[in-house]
Structures are given as structure tokens and as C-alpha cells.
Request: fold
Amino acid sequence: MVKAAGRSARDSVWLQEKPRRGGRAGQPSGLDRERITATSVRLLDAEGLTKVSMRRLAAELNVTAMSLYWYVDTKDDLLELALDAAFGELRLPDPDAQGEDWREQLRGLATEYRALLVRHPWLSPLAGRYLNIGPNSLAFSRAVQRVVRRAGLPAHGVTGAISAVFQFVYGFGTIEGHFFARIADTGLSPDEYYEQAMALVTEAPGTAEAVEESKDLMAARGGDTVDEMLDRDFAFALDLLIAGIEAMVSRG
Reply:
């Protein structure tokens, strides 16, 4: 795990000796850490990572900025809490369920993580910034590890397999999230944006040749909508990675 530059591991909200789940005597009425975290996630979704501050959050909660410090010590604490709250949205399989195929469970976990990254574009910059040892993040990590262990890889290959799958998902979901955020700013639907963009690049001298060269690949890709095209690419790439795990298991 990568920690934030200039911060020690002890600075993590999850490693504080006396983590404050609520306020102290005299705290603002009706305010608690859970409400602060939920509002932070909503603001991050609406306004993005750079615009959220303790002052902006306080205004949304209709309290003073100083009131927030009864519950969190720093903005970093706030972001760590929001990050783990987002991970709590993931639906996790039961790795010990009888008759469940590890491949399908891994596909499910990868699909859930991709959707989370797209739904919360602010999440990807934070995922490597903090220790990610909140209860929801740990539950996800443990589920992934237990599912991949069942594939039959040697112990020294398990973390590499996890990295191959979930760093791919991280990259795919991050770029997809940026793409949809760009589209949202235009006021167009994804399909309208795609059609306009393709029409422009097909006509532009600098890009027309590249588009022509890949025309057969685009046709073979299939999909009537942007969502369908992205889903097909993601599913095929994930199948390649799972096939790679199976191949490594067969090597013994």
C-alpha cells in the first residue's frame, strides 16, 4: 500500500489511538461522524475532489467549520472515511459458498470495482494515497484474496494475479470515469458525444488515416451503444486475464 507523501502510517484515521466515532461534550447537536462522511461522499460526487474543503462541507451541513473538528482532525481523515464508505457499496461474494466458481466470483468482484470507480471518479486518486485499511476496504481485499487463492496458484503467485486483474480494473474504470465526466460537461448523451467525436476525427486530416486503419476492428468490436462497446472490451480483457491465471495453474 502507498501512503500519502509527508504523512506517517500513524496519521491514518484508522490507526489513531483513540479514533473518534462521535463528538465530545458540547459537540454540535445532530452531527456525527457517519453523517459527516455521507455528506462528504455526496459532495465529492457532485463537485469533485479539488472543490471539497472543510469549510464547504460545514456549509453543506449548516454548521461552522470548527464544529467538524469535534469528529475529524484533518481533511485527510475526512477523505479516508469517505474512501472507505465508498468501498462499503461493493457487493461481496462468499468465497466459501459451496459450488461457486472462483472465476465467476472474480468477474463479479472486478465488475463491482469497475462500477465503483466510474460512479465515484474521485475515488481513484485516493485509492493509492492512503493505507486503505478501513473495514470496508479490508473486507474487499480479503474477499479478493480468498477468491484468487481458490484458483490453485502457488502462494507466491497470488498477489501477482490480484495485481494483474485489479490494476487493470483500476485503469479501465479510472479512464472510463474520466470519459463520462467529460461527456457530462458537454450536455450530450454518451452516444451523441461518440457519434460527434467520430465524425470529426474521421474528417480531420491528422486522424482520418488512423481511423480508417482501425475500421475493421471497430466493426468487429460490436455493440450498438457506448456502454455496450465498453462492456464488451472489459469482459474480453477480463477473460484474457482469467485465462492467464488458468494457464499458470496448469503449468503447476
About this structure: The first helix runs from residue 33 to 47. The CA atoms of residues 18 and 156 lie 36 Å apart.
